[in-house]
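On clarity, I found the account of how folds are encoded harder to follow than it need be. Since the whole study asks how a given chain folds, the encoding of that fold should be made plain. For illustration, here is how one protein appears when written out as sequence plus structure tokens:
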Amino acid sequence: MGKRFIIITIALFLIAICGFAQGVATIYISRPFKGAGSISKHNIEINNVPIGAISSGGTMAITIPAGDVIIKDYYGVVGNPETLWSAISAEAGNAYYVKINETAKKMVLINDTPDKYKNAALYDFATLERLYNKTQGANQQVAQNNKQQVSAQTSTQPVTNNKSQIISDVDKNIPQSKTVANNTYVLIIANEEYEQLDNVNFAMHDGETFRDYCIKTLGVPEKQVRFFPNATYGKITSGVDWLKYALNNFNGSKGIVYYCGHGIPDEKTGEAFIIPVDGKGTNTTTCYSLNTLYTVLAETKAESITYFMDACFTGANKEGSMLIAARGVAREPAKSTVGGNAIVFSASSGDETAMTYPEKGHGLFTYFLLKKLQETKGNVSYSELSNYINSNVKKEAFLINEKPQTPVVATSPEAQESWKDMKLK
């Protein structure tokens, strides 16, 4: 082995050791395609920081702070519409391998070994980020070196997620309501960090931002909003019990339920379940039934209940792969029974996947839900909201992933005639 290989190997080994202690990971990127007609340069950005160009057949390695990572691959020129994306939740001390597939126009996460990258140019992301900020005046959101330990208690206060977070247009200029929704009670469950399953990218961000819109735009008092980040089975049960009590004990009450995370159908019955962060995808007794949720709240005295479900219940995650390796295909869940004066906005239909919108740092469904609330200051009918979400999600799902995602609305029998004219405020 040459001296260059030995030096790079030692450097990468030291980086891995130091990275575990200091909170950095390494991203390896390969571009194996060498066929005729291949584009000479692909420009790489990580969390909006330009890293450099990778040539056909080339490789590169970048050390980055641990946290959520968005890798952009621009075809030839920054800003080219043919931009490829890859989202990774990088843990300290780990290495991640991404391959550019030009033929399929994809960036895919692969299993690989450092030996194949012995000639890779090594970049220090932190140094590049500081240099970029200094020379370009950019104000980038970069990963933090530590994770916040979320309290086991429920909270009415926002939970700050110290991971790298993309700030999109819906996270700024949130409209302020001049009225107070004294009769509205909100339950938000945002499950991102699972103990036994893949994490759900941007779920915490989705829940936090939806909470902000409930308080600021819809005028719901903070004490009437319960936010459960990374909810276990016990927390989900506790949250539903809280909402049930509120809807039963206050006249003219309205309920809003928002869920973002994993869902799965029972293999035998098809019944849909929410997966708590401590739940098992192979055992629905560790999960929370959607039928139970709808039935418990339908039996309350609520004037109306609105559900927003940014999850699919097919057994697939938001990147489209299966939660359970033994399950090769997604299954369409059985229809859940909705009672009371209830409306359910679901992110996808049939056996489709509820996908993310990496460029915006949100779930695709949640982003357009928030966007419409921002544009209308919350004063929007359910029919307008449904049409807006449906058309935009279908379009972006195709453009980003070339896959279908069709949001749907389901109602209880009581709401079939009236839901289109209903509003959140």
Observations:
- The CA atoms of residues 147 and 196 lie 19 Å apart.
